[in-house]
Design brief:
The structure is a single chain. This protein is an alpha/beta fold. Helix content is about 40%, strand content about 15%. It has 16 helices and 11 strands. The longest helix is centred in the middle third of the chain and has 17 residues.
């Protein structure tokens, strides 16, 4: 299959659904750790098609959603400074901070720029030597190589007015935190294909062995996801717990070695707080000491900021798979894309946004095994 339409073929999808339902002898609980996969599952109604064979629950796979409130407030403080041009990807502009969001700061006169690459932000710094340019470096391992390259190039070119506000997180520690939770229900994972394109899947092998859970590296189209689910169900039924690769057209076991090497040279692992979840040890990336001159938090003396999450927002429960978005009392009423309580309602990969945009305001009828 080489063309996009083939990954959305309804006949192939129906065949895979029947294979999954024929293979499953009980209802298995599976988590996708990718916001893009969540949107495909919700938009296409894959959870309903699987009936009583598989329950899909949505994990912390949206990088915008897990960016902690403290980092948003630091971004807002920087963006409001008259000496700063604050550069960010567009999906961060509507994420609510304690009092406002970046879009509102821009409306008040803040120099907030939407860029498509961290290298665009570096170019901004070169073109505006009288301003400090700060790039909001957010994401999982997928965006880390490009952000590392921007910092590397800034040092190489000698651009002193460029820095990054880092809020990078990594997937494997989050998976461990979910599996270690006393109320964990996850029996298998679909791993994000784009993360594994960079990192490969060697980091998942100890998790699969230690926790005895199948992990399937999966793409983003309906056929990808259904095939990944089928792989996982077969493992569960056989009592196996391995890492399998469904996304063979993009992912190898070793990943993209030059990209991994660059990330390791620029960043190191550190503890990181996740929005609505709390601190997960060793789950974040921070700049190494040799690149400290490009650390916006140190350069601007932001220090530690502690902010209470809004009590009404159940983002943490949604991100840990404990709650489906429509089960939150505020969903669709006090929390909408126009007036969000939390990031999952406004991010293009947020589970709450998926449920809202595709009309999932209630539990859909589950298709029975015999239908």
């Amino acid at each position: 299959m080489r063309y996009l339409s083939e990954y959305r073929d309804p006949e192939v999808a129906r065949s895979l659904v029947h294979q999954i339902r024929d293979t499953a002898t009980r209802r298995w609980v599976m988590m996708e750790v990718c916001g893009g996969q969540t949107h495909t599952i919700v938009k296409q109604g894959l959870g309903e098609l699987l009936g009583d064979a598989v329950e899909m629950i949505h994990g912390p796979g949206c990088p915008v959603c897990v960016t902690p409130l403290e980092q948003i407030d630091k971004a807002l403080a920087l963006a409001a400074r008259p000496d700063v041009i604050f550069a960010s990807f567009g999906d961060m502009l509507r994420v609510p901070g304690s009092d406002c969001d970046l879009q509102q700061v821009r409306a008040r006169g803040g120099a907030v720029r939407v860029v498509y690459s961290p290298l665009d932000a570096l170019a901004l710094a070169q073109a505006n030597p009288d301003k400090e340019v700060v790039f909001f470096a957010v994401g999982f391992e997928t965006t880390a190589p490009a952000n590392a390259m921007a910092v590397w190039r800034a040092r190489e070119l000698g651009v002193p007015n460029f820095s990054v506000l880092v809020s990078h997180v990594t997937v494997p520690p989050a998976m461990r935190a979910i599996l270690d939770a006393p109320d964990n229900r996850v029996q298998a994972f679909l791993a994000a294909g784009h993360v594994c394109t960079v990192m490969g899947w060697t980091e998942y092998e100890p998790i699969a062995a230690e926790y005895r859970v199948p992990i399937v590296v999966t793409g983003f189209e309906p056929i990808d996801i259904l095939e990944g689910i089928h792989f996982a169900v077969r493992q569960l039924e056989d009592g196996r717990h391995e890492v399998e690769n469904q996304y063979v057209r993009a992912v190898t076991r070793a990943g993209t070695v030059p990209a991994r090497s660059l990330v390791e040279q620029v960043f190191r692992l550190a503890d990181r707080k996740w929005r609505g979840i709390g601190e997960i040890p060793g789950s974040g990336l921070v700049l190494r000491d040799e690149f400290a001159a490009f650390d916006a938090e140190a350069k601007f003396g932001l220090g530690d900021v502690t902010v209470e999450e809004p009590a009404e927002c159940r983002a943490g429960d949604v991100l840990r798979g404990r709650l489906k978005p429509h089960q939150c009392p505020a969903f669709g009423s006090r929390c909408t894309p126009e007036h969000p309580l939390g990031a999952p309602m406004v991010s293009s990969e947020g589970a709450c946004a998926a449920y809202y945009n595709y009309g999932r305001f209630r539990e859909m009828e589950v298709v029975g095994r015999g239908s």
